[in-house]
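A student in our group prepared the protein record below, which I am reviewing. This is what I was given:
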Amino acid sequence: MKLLIIADDLSGAADCAIGFANAGHRTVVTLDEAQAAHDADVIAADTDTRRLAPADAAARTAHASAALGRERRLYKKIDSTLRGNWAAEVAALQKQAGLAIVAPAFPATGRTVRGGALLVHGVPLDQTETWQLEHAGRNADMAAMLAAAGLKSERFNAALLHDDARALSRRVALIAAEGTDGAQALIVDAQSAADLRALAGATLELDTPFFWVGSGGLARELATLDPPCAASHADADAVADNAQQDRGGSAPGPILVMVGSLSAVGERQCAVLRERVGLVELVVPPDVLRAGRSHAHWSQWLARIGAALDMAHGTTHDTTHGAAHADLLLRIGRDDAFDPAEGAQLSAMLAALVAPHFATLGGLIATGGETARAMLDAAGIASLRLIAEIEAGVAVARPHAQTAQTPPAHRPAVVTKAGAFGTDDALYAAWRHLREQANTPTEHKPTQA
């Protein structure tokens, strides 16, 4: 099966597609349609529409489908906490692709759907910190959000498939028989990986037009049911990046951990990283990033980040000498003027501070899709080849070998993670993965900036 995944941010594209890479499919995440690897089994396209107006997001999503979706099945990746313009984007795709089967559950990360409602670790979505941070006072009901975008929906419980594998096909046939009066979207209850696995199998048996709408949970179950063909590994790039040879270890040089997300999850992950790893930490004030290059202290921050990375690079030694790595944790600060809507601007300016020093990096860990996208854009990296998964939703990649503007000699490992995703150990686990795969130390003493 050739598949196109359309996501509204970079970390989402990667965490949705990584299941296919794990299953042996040649899988590429693209930030630029013109540079997509059309010979890949799976293309995950980041349309970068999270912050656009709904109509603009819908138009860009439909264009990506038309440009990249020829002879490919369609999977619309949506945020597992329903951020962004997902309903408008689904409505735009539904006109092209048929029934939307909406299953955002991702039990491995605590996301389940019960009674048509999305729960995060058992808590209704609209009561969570993630929802309140950006959508306080707004309705988190999926059916209502789809209705506002012009789509009629019905509900289906994936648990029915355990006893009756054809329950979904009969339901879809009934909807199809209703014609224009029938539902355009089917919201699926799923509370376990087994539910999603049963749903994945049932959808592959459907003979009416449809497309998948979900997070990384349903995607990884689909991946296990669709083994890759041998030809997908035949090209030279696949040989060079073979996952058995390249597990995504860092190259010589410092590891940069960029944190743009201000979620409570991200805060805990930073705390664990600081506790277990001695690294330099710099927190850039938001007013510096808002003003950008016109800020009086811009040059000072540029030099400070460069000095920290130079120091880290200079203290990197082989394990046989017993020396330590001094890597950099770079974060966006928070002040009373903070507005979640300015995230893209702040991330872009943070990336601009790093860009002159990017070539010194041995590895990049970026949490928050906007932060990861901004850094790769600033570095001229237009696509990534997915390699491995550290934990659910935390993907390791390298810049694709054919990426324009990216010298093949400098292809640092890139780890992406959604801001509100992951265990408290996620950032530390990502750092440890890069260092261990490079056969370098995993513990060291603190360094002061």
